[in-house]
Amino acid sequence: MTAKYPLLTFTVMKNEGPFLLEWVAYQKVFGADQILIMTNDCGDGTDLMLDRLDEMGVVRHIPNPCMMGPKMVGKARHPHILGFEYGKFHKEWRKADYVLMCDTDEFPVSYVGDGGLDGLMDAAGGPDVLSLCERLFGAGEHVHYDERLITERFLECSSSAPGRWRANKGIKSISRNRLDIDIRNHRPIVPSEDEAAVHWVDGAGNPFPAEARTTHIKGLDCRGRYVLGAINHYALRSYETYIAKVDRGDAVTNYDNRHDIVYFRRRNRTEDPDNAIQRMVPHVKEERARLLKDDTLRRLHFAAIRHHRRKVYRLLEQPGYRALYDEMLVLGAQMSAKVEESRAAPA
């Protein structure tokens, strides 16, 4: 059966082994019929897992070309940037009707229909571009790494109606793959002469702001835009996993690392409960269980989990990481107390 909105999900990653199968399973359940992934410098077996998934016909795995020469010679060699540009040359991308660039800690969520892509796109009017605002799911009380699904465990996120100073949220876009739509990481760029021909809407189905279409604004005022769907962004996961993320560096490399206590503070949001993704969890579990029936993949999956646990243990033996971890514990407790206090206050 031909998909109504044939979608390619594309990403670049490094050391995401413990979380990989959940993300792949979710993308499949959501409605992506093709997944193209590039990796670099993996030490936890993520690349081996993807090789096996490629052999199984589940994803297409390609080494990131940033590994071919001297690392990080200027911004042009940033794995994200180079990977995205290289991805456009591959047949999976060239043949795709729609493309979603989506990191391993991001999950597109539909609030309409059955929770899948078709219902979301139909509700949005079958657009050329649908740009969804993120909802940040903070670490909250999740201190320790846990093998259970991220989408099942983390149920509190940033407010859907924040004040003015916290209203700008990052966006990710499902974009039609055609010449007048220059697909980028967060949203496409459309030349001003082609702007009128592109049906571009936000997460409420409203026209994307005209003043933002030909620029590279990466975020929008999220207020009133969480109507049809959103991007659930689990940027921190648990405190322990965040420590491993700090060590890994920004995105997929230690280049220009921005992960620190400030990053933690800004993304540890737990103001609102959000269960929208929960209806997808049983289907994700079923798909992940199907993948884990493969003996090779199952062995690699649990090896990645063991690697992650050992890495966190080793990092917390180092004074710098231990100090950051302790600071996170104090700050996280303070932030949780403020949220509870605000919820208990009279309306």
Protein described:
This protein has 347 residues and is α/β, with parallel strands linked by helices. It contains 11 helices and 12 strands. It has helices at 17-30, 46-55, 79-87, 91-95, 117-123, 150-153, 239-248, 261-267, 281-291, 295-315, 319-344, and strands at 7-13, 34-39, 60-63, 98-101, 106-110, 129-136, 156-157, 168-176, 200-202, 219-221, 229-233, 272-273. The strands form 2 sheets. Strands 1, 2, 3, 4, 5, 6, 8, 9, 10 and 11 form a 10-stranded mixed β-sheet that branches. Strands 7-12 form a two-stranded antiparallel sheet. α1 (17-30) packs across α9 (281-291), α2 (46-55) packs antiparallel against α10 (295-315) and α7 crosses α10. It is globular, with a radius of gyration of 20 Å. 46% of the residues are buried.
Topology:
Elements: E1 7-13, H1 17-30, E2 34-39, H2 46-55, E3 60-63, H3 79-87, H4 91-95, E4 98-101, E5 106-110, H5 117-123, E6 129-136, H6 150-153, E7 156-157, E8 168-176, E9 200-202, E10 219-221, E11 229-233, H7 239-248, H8 261-267, E12 272-273, H9 281-291, H10 295-315, H11 319-344
Parallel strand pairs: 1-2, 1-4, 2-3, 6-9, 6-11
Antiparallel strand pairs: 4-8, 5-11, 6-8, 7-12, 8-10
Helix percent band: 25-40%
Count of separate DSSP helical elements: 11
- Estimate what percentage of residues fall within beta strands: 15-25%
Radius of gyration of CA atoms, rounded to a whole number? 20 Å
Please give the alpha-carbon distance between the first and last residues. Answer: 51 Å
Find the structural class using helix and strand composition. Answer: alpha/beta
Total strand count, please?
A: 12
The outline comes out as globular
H/E element order: EHEHEHHEEHEHEEEEEHHEHHH
Task: Average the pLDDT over all residues and give the rounded result.
Answer: 92
Largest sheet: 10 strands, mixed
Low-confidence stretches: none
